[in-house]
Amino acid sequence: MPVQLKCLSHTPLRGLNDPGAEVIAEVDAVLAKCRAEVEAYDPELIVVFAPDHYNGLFYDLMPPFVIATAAESVGDYQTKPGPLSVPGGLALELARHLLDSDLDIAISHRLQVDHGCTQTLQEMTGSLERYPVIPIIINSVAPPFGPYRRIRKLGQAVGSFIARLGKRVLILGTGGLSHEPPVPLLADAPQDVADFLIAGRNPTPEFRAARQARTIATGKIFGTPQCGLTPLNPEWDKAFMRLLIEGRLEQVDAFRIDEISKAAGRSTHEVRTWVAAFAALQAVGDYSAREDYYRPINEWIAGYGVVSAATV
Ligand SMILES: O=C(O)CCc1cccc(O)c1O
Ligand SMILES: [Fe+2]
């Protein structure tokens, strides 16, 4: 039973602060093709590795990894609100398998997920409930982060579980590539910002709108001298995609968190979801992979990439 994988950037600015029409058309076409491939594959299960952006997870209790037995979309930006179709019993079995594999994963029986999970799920399946899906959140936005070798181990353990299922499983990774949107840091934050980062769950609609307006405003100047955030880094992105496509996953063990933040932007660590996804696929079996698309898109604050793979 071949297992399939898709890893792609997400960006809530898609549709809110768009680049030119040709670029939109290119991305629409790539996503439509991926969506059709998923439809044809008809997965019996999706495992999605995703980050969170202070919508479901906060510093009052910030886990490195979480697996959800039930999840609900907060509906931030233009994503749909409401429940995901999480097979709770199977998710719990996977959690047990991970614990048995020496991985201390947190479990949520009621997880709130944001665009970091739902945008890609919607783009690849058309909805939040089309297929059974197990969300695994990897902390990629709220430092400190564990090393990349740990992410590879998590992925490998998820992959050994998937291999045993013998089902049509689609593995998704969502986020990256190089980018630095205006996400606040707890270190040196003023008290009101710190309060949000520590316990900002279920914000008022006004608070959420102000936050999203800030992201859109940054999108309008991102990549210009007016913007102090780390610019996109296409060279870093291309080297990273090549590493995954060529199956050189052990090389991520040498990744240095601070170096990546500096070279490619603080939110580049969302590629942790890609590392976990590819490590899971590789644990199922040898794979072949292809680059579907890459373009640095300042309007979206994203080194925007799409990669597909499947076991051979
Ligand atoms: O709202 C936020 O906290 C960040 C939004 C955001 C913007 C650009 C690229 C992303 O990957 C992303 O997540
Ligand atoms: Fe993100």
UniProtKB/TrEMBL annotation:
The active site is at H115 (proton donor), H179 (proton acceptor). Residues 7-303 form the Extradiol ring-cleavage dioxygenase class III enzyme subunit B domain. Keywords: Aromatic hydrocarbons catabolism, Dioxygenase, Iron, Oxidoreductase. InterPro entries: DHPP/DHXA_dioxygenase, Xdiol_dOase_suB. Its cofactor is Fe(2+). Signal peptide: none annotated. Pathway: Aromatic compound metabolism; 3-phenylpropanoate degradation. Pfam families: LigB. The keyword DNA-binding does not apply. CDD domains: MhpB_like. Its EC number is 1.13.11.16. Homotetramer. Catalyzes the non-heme iron(II)-dependent oxidative cleavage of 2,3-dihydroxyphenylpropionic acid and 2,3-dihydroxicinnamic acid into 2-hydroxy-6-ketononadienedioate and 2-hydroxy-6-ketononatrienedioate, respectively. Belongs to the LigB/MhpB extradiol dioxygenase family. This is 2,3-dihydroxyphenylpropionate/2,3-dihydroxicinnamic acid 1,2-dioxygenase. The gene is mhpB.
